[in-house]
Write a structure and sequence with these properties.
heterodimer, A: about 400 residues, about 65% helix, globular, disordered N terminus, B: alpha/beta, Purple Acid Phosphatase, chain A, domain 2, 6 helices, 13 strands
């Protein structure tokens, strides 16, 4: 996950350059609000439904570079966030901070998966069963900005970030070994051991710049993942913890400490990753809308109904067992939060392309993933109905 | 009988006569029926277990008495709904009982409604594989699982096509890469993945289902595409006008019978009532 501060809080020189390129306005806003990816997705949808042959030639040609190489940087930044939040004095260091969100995430995963598989088997569409990891995805950016509008200055924001990250990490663990590959080769494990050993050596030598970690260790790790048939987009995940870090609060979309070499990696790559996300949307979100089918409804039901119900049930049980709801969050707010977590666009798309190959199954599930964007609207609707946050009666 | 009901009865009888005069009568298959030619039938989207599937089964058996095809290729969605052992009886063995008793073999491909484990069902002759190939006389068939064109399947097809020096190469799978069906239409992502291989290795004919109509598509890049997705299910009136549409039939269930002899392939599409709704022939271009 990247920061929204891509241009505003990066290293001053880079920030200046980025802003100058962005014309000090529109692009900065697009980057800050994570709008490049949805823009890419909309372009892809229009392109695929007006000139499908040229779109699919493009998407197949660039799919590998974007999904399996470019997205490695996206997951590296996400890993950086989590590693620093887990450090002493970081947001996730104390179990009390994350226990309820983790329980909520588990409930959401269980609810979404149960509804998905229940629907698929009820419809006797067993071919779709392999797509269940797709519903283990929360679009953290959408959830965050939805709640930032509805429930500002409450415990909802860190709670939903934790819940989303936990859900997505679970999804990543499930998706990584399910990546369809032509063949697996021996020797990947040895390469990975070499990459990790080298990264450890660089750390011992107090190498602070991220380039050797990325160029040498990252490349070795990518090759290791590729050879072993694991999704190579996760190749930088085991390398990032060896970079030097400092603890931080978990606020992915706020300004990070604007300081030093330890954040070079994310500073250097923030804008790049946003552009990668634009390409990710462009390459993966193009589907023929005619391709909707049972899988579309399965994903939508799982995300928009199963996950919120699962979150509410799990948190309800945890509160009954003695845990406390976050600051200024009651049950009505929790309903809104659960609905805000039902959008799964970015990770849902990634998981879909990560476990499924080109074909009608992927198409119908992708349409379902894109349709979960309705979760944000449901959250606004629920907030208005329940008079929560900015919709509360004065 | 009341006096004033007699004119009504006469009118009704005349009406029936007029209707039956204009209704196409069942026709005999007009394929050449040459000795030693390869004869087979094509059915798609069959497994409903409902009346029309049984009627198609009976038509196939009737046709076979005069045109003894050896086997039937199934274009997927061989089973809808529940797929327990009893369903294989209700949705496959009973509708095609006469054919099965006559020794006709069925070679299935998997559709989106098929349980992937159905590839182990003996009656489908898939040998436990999602994708496979078999040869009969001078024709090699390539059977694909179009639900997902994973890298391994594509590599397998590449190699299998490359190895084949058979005179005719026929590929069949469930999702059409060319179709003017209104509900689904062409799967273009699949087309972009598959078509280069089909063209490169000189595949002659592609059969697919999924859209519940019959359609013959104007040859695309040298390949003739058929959609035969109405041998059980039917989406009446679903064929959309298109410059790529060579022939279609979307008013009733249908199937195909095919004969391949040397460089000629003859085909007929036959409706549930036995009417020939499309026919023609293709000639294989000799290798240069």
């Amino acid at each position: 996950m990247m920061r929204s501060h891509a241009a505003t809080a990066a290293h001053p020189r880079i920030r200046h350059q980025a802003r100058r390129k962005a014309g000090h306005g529109a692009l900065t806003l697009l980057i800050d609000r994570f709008l490049l990816l949805p823009i890419g997705a909309v372009i892809a949808l229009v392109w695929a439904n007006t000139a499908p042959e040229s779109y699919f030639h493009f998407s197949i040609s660039f799919g590998f570079v974007v999904n399996e190489i470019g997205m490695a940087f996206f997951f590296a930044l996400l890993t950086q966030e989590i590693v620093e939040a887990l450090m002493p004095h970081g947001a996730l260091h104390s179990w009390r901070r994350w226990s309820l969100a983790l329980i909520g995430a588990a409930g959401g995963i269980a609810g979404a998966t149960a509804v998905y598989l229940g629907f698929v088997y009820y419809q006797y569409e067993t071919i779709l069963a392999t797509g269940w990891p797709i519903v283990c995805a929360v679009d953290v950016a959408v959830a965050y900005y939805t709640l930032k509008i509805i429930l500002p200055r409450t415990g909802a924001l860190p709670f939903v970030l934790l819940l989303g990250i936990a859900t997505d990490v679970f999804g990543i663990l499930v998706v990584a070994p399910r990546h369809p590959v032509l063949e697996e080769h021996a020797g990947g494990a040895a390469l990975l051991v070499g990459a990790l050993g080298l990264a450890a050596l660089l750390r011992v030598l107090h190498v602070r710049t991220f380039w050797p970690y990325l160029a040498v260790c990252g490349t070795l790790s990518w090759l290791a993942f590729f050879r072993e048939g694991l999704h190579p987009a996760f190749a930088l995940v085991p390398i990032v913890p060896f970079l030097r870090h400092e603890p931080r609060r978990l606020d992915l979309f706020a300004d990070p400490p604007d300081d030093d070499a330890t954040h070079h990696f994310e500073h250097e790559w923030n804008v790049v990753v946003q552009l990668i996300l634009f390409l990710f949307g462009l390459v993966n979100a193009g589907v023929l809308l005619q391709g909707y089918d049972s899988g579309t409804w399965a994903v939508m039901l799982a995300a928009l109904v199963g996950r919120p119900l699962g979150i509410l049930a799990a948190v309800g049980l945890a509160v009954a067992a003695g845990l406390h709801l976050p600051h200024r969050i009651g049950w009505r707010e929790l309903v809104v939060l659960a609905l805000a977590s039902s959008t799964s666009c970015v990770f849902g798309l990634f998981f879909a392309t990560g476990i499924l190959s080109i074909g009608p199954v992927l198409s119908q599930l992708t349409i379902g993933v894109l349709a979960t964007a309705a979760g944000a609207l449901l959250a606004f609707g629920a907030a208005r109905l329940l008079r929560v946050g900015r919709f509360a009666a004065r | 009988m009341k006096r004033d009901s007699l004119p009504r009865l006469v009118t009704a009888l005349v009406g029936l006569l007029v209707i039956s005069a204009f209704r196409p009568a069942a026709q005999d298959v007009r394929l050449p029926h040459r000795p030693d030619s390869l004869k087979f039938a094509v059915i798609g989207d069959t497994g409903t277990g409902a009346g029309p599937q049984f009627e198609i089964g009976r038509q196939l058996a009737t046709i076979r008495s005069g045109f003894p095809f050896e086997f039937v290729i199934m274009l997927g969605d061989n089973m809808y709904g529940r797929q327990e052992p009893q369903d294989f009886v209700e949705k496959f063995e009973r509708p095609y009982a006469a054919l099965l008793q006559g020794g006709v073999r069925f070679y299935a491909s998997l559709g989106n409604h098929d349980n992937q484990n159905n590839r182990f069902y003996k009656g489908f002759n898939m040998g436990g594989e999602r994708y496979y190939t078999f040869v009969r006389k001078n024709v090699r068939f390539f059977v694909l699982d179009s639900n997902q064109m994973d890298p391994r399947q594509r590599a397998w097809l590449d190699e299998a096509l490359q190895r084949s020096d058979d005179e005719w190469k026929i590929c069949y799978f469930h999702h059409p890469i060319y179709s003017d069906g209104g509900r689904h239409g062409s799967d273009v992502s699949l087309r972009v993945t598959l078509e280069p291989l089909l063209v490169k290795y000189g595949v002659n004919v592609v059969f697919a289902g999924h859209d519940h109509i019959y359609e013959r598509v104007v040859p695309q890049k040298g390949i003739t595409h058929f959609v035969v997705g109405s041998s059980g299910e039917l989406r009446r009136g679903d064929a959309r006008p298109s410059p790529t549409r060579a022939a279609y039939f979307d008013r009733d269930q249908s199937f195909m019978v095919v004969e391949v002899d040397a460089d000629d392939l003859f085909f007929e599409a036959v409706s549930r009532t036995g009417t020939i709704v499309d026919s023609g022939s293709l000639q294989r271009k000799p290798k240069t």
